[in-house]
Amino acid sequence: MALLEVSDLKRSFGSGDNRLDVLKGVDMSIESGELVALMGPSGSGKSTLLNIIGGLLPADSGVIELDGMTYGRKGPAQVVDIRREKIGWIFQDFHLIAHLSALDNVALALEIAGVTSAEAEKAATSALERVGLSDRIHHIPDQLSGGQQQRVAIARAIAGSRPVLLADEPTGNLDIQSGKDVLELFRELCHDEINPISILLVTHDPELASKADRMLLLNDGKTAASNIRDAWGLDGGEEE
Ligand SMILES: Nc1ncnc2c1ncn2[C@@H]1O[C@H](COP(=O)(O)OP(=O)(O)O)[C@@H](O)[C@H]1O
Ligand SMILES: [Mg+2]
After folding, report:
1. Which of 134, 104, 102, 136 lies closest to 121 in space, CA to CA?
2. Whole-model pTM?
3. Which residue, 49, 95, 115, 165, is most buried by CB atoms nearer than 10 A?
4. Domain 25-86+163-235 - what CATH class?
5. What is the Rg, in whole angstroms, of the alpha carbon atoms belonging to the chain?
6. What does the alpha-carbon distance between residue 183 and residue 200 come to, in Å, rounded to a whole number?
7. Which residues are paired to 7 by β-bridges?
8. Where are the alpha helices (DSSP H) in the chain?
9. Selection from 35, 41, 42, 12 nearest residue 25 by Cα
C-alpha cells in the first residue's frame, strides 16, 4: 500500500447555475520517498486537491488514506491530527515571520505543535542544517535571499518529521537558479536513505517538473500520468 492513496475524490464549488465541478474523481497515490510533480492549467484544481489532501478542505466524496489514517470528507476540525503529524506545507510566498530569526521561525512552528523549547531548538537546528543553512540560523528573513528564505520554510516543514510535504508553486517567486536548487533539495529529502519523505509539488515549470520522479497532469477534473519530457520536447537523458 502506498503512503498516500487518493481514491475517486470529487469536489464542486457553488450550486445551481453557478456550480463548478473542479475535481471529478481524482485517483492518485504516492510512495514513501517519492517526489511527484503535479501540473495542470490555471484553475484546474491543483490547489483544491492539495487543500483536501492537507486537511484544510473537505471533499464532497472520495477517500484519502495516509499513513494509516483515513479521511477525505471530514471537515478541518476532524483532521487536526493529520495536519499536525502527517503533512508539512510549503508555499510560494514563504510565510515566514519577519522579525524572527531562521532558527526561531522553525522552532516556533514546533513549539506551537507542543514540543518543548529545548527540543524545538535542537530539531530546528538540525532541520536548518539539512537544508544547508547552518551558517544563517540567526539571520532574519530580510537578511536572506529568496532562495534562502524558501529553504527556511522547507526546514520548518520538515522539522516536525512529517512524512508528506505539499508544495504549492514553491518556486513561483524564485529566480531560475534558486528554483533549481529547491528541486535539488527536494530530491535529496525524498531520496534520503535513512529518513525519506514524500513531496507533492505543484509547478508550472516543465523543466523543474521533469526533475521529479513522476509527473501527474490534472486536467478536466482528473489526474493522468504524464510524460512531460516528451510533451515539452525536453531532453530526457539529463545528467544527475
Ligand atoms: N472556495 C472556493 N469557492 C469557489 N470557487 C473556488 C474556491 N476555491 C477554488 N475555486 C475555483 O475552483 C477552480 C480551481 O481552483 P484552484 O484549485 O485554485 O486551481 P489551480 O490551483 O489549479 O489554479 C477555480 O475555478 C477556482 O476559482
Ligand atoms: Mg493554485
Report:
1. 104
2. 0.93
3. 49
4. alpha beta
5. 18
6. 12
7. 63
8. 46-53, 80-85, 102-112, 117-130, 146-159, 176-191, 206-209, 228-231
9. 12
Which pLDDT tens digit goes with each residue over 111-159?
988 899 999 999 999 999 999 999 999 999 999 999 999 999 999 999 9
Residues 6+ apart with CB under 8 A from 219: 40, 41, 44
- The C-alpha cell at 73 is 470528507
Exposure of 173 by Cβ count < 10 A (0-12 exposed, 13-18 middle, 19+ buried)?
middle
Residue ranges, the chain, pLDDT below 50: 237-240
Give residue 113's pLDDT: 83
What is the distance in A from the centroid of ligand 1 to the CA of 204? 16
pLDDT at 1: 81
Distance of CA 130 to the CA centre of its chain: 17
Does ligand 1 have an atom closer than 6 angstroms to the CB of 47?
yes
Can you tell me the distance from the alpha carbon of 236 to that of 233, in angstroms, rounded to the nearest whole number?
9
pLDDT of residue 239: 46
Task: Please report the DSSP string for 137-176 in residue order.
Answer: TT--GGGS-HHHHHHHHHHHHHHT--SEEEEESTTTTS-H
Q: Does any ligand 1 atom lie closer than 6 A to the CB of residue 221?
A: no
Q: Where are the domains of the chain?
A: 25-86+163-235, 99-161
